[in-house]
């Protein structure tokens, strides 16, 4: 393995941070590294909000489900899918712009995720830890109002950054054989069963938050009820009408 692959395989979500600040120049470099990610048709359909106001960070921490590390991390970023900038740029050329297409939502969301993952890898290469915060979609309207997001922009997730104050174990992933198929999709129930055993051993032996569970049981809260049913109406209100 080269150093880049080793870094990727060592990823952990960090939720406890030291008081050390992130130099502004380094933060700018991380965003530039994010911008170097692949982007559909060079649209670059994203905007990143660096939330510095302490009161706003406390508010977002609560809106995200009481995740205190949103407020305590050295820096907190909100990654937004942004179709406002590219559609307005196109309109200025005289184009008859059609907004609200489902493909625009997909492009902006994928662009944002690719950009953010570049930021995450760049941050970890500099000794920082990160934690994605999908919980901002618990209350996306309130987060959007707090950040003054205009139409055709929506918050996809947040990211805590800082210097780690703990070193959690690396969480196992599904075996490559379950993910990588040759030519056609094939069933992988045997791999899932084996992975459940792996995850149960991990949960029972990790240094913090021990529990008796496995991968399949951990998925139950995501799929035994309608998860964030407000998102469709919220996205429509944002201008992503999914035509």
TrEMBL record:
Keywords: Flavoprotein, FMN, NADP, Oxidoreductase. InterPro entries: Flavin_OxRdtase_Frp, Nitroreductase, Nitroreductase-like. GO terms for molecular function: FMN reductase (NADPH) activity. SUPFAM superfamilies: FMN-dependent nitroreductase-like (SSF55469). Residues 10-163 form the Nitroreductase domain. It comes from the Bacteria. Gene3D superfamilies: NADH Oxidase (3.40.109.10). The keyword Nucleus does not apply. Its EC number is 1.5.1.38. The keyword Zinc-finger does not apply. NCBIfam families: PRK10765.1 (NF008033). Belongs to the flavin oxidoreductase frp family. This is Oxygen-insensitive NADPH nitroreductase. It comes from Vreelandella piezotolerans. The gene is nfsA.
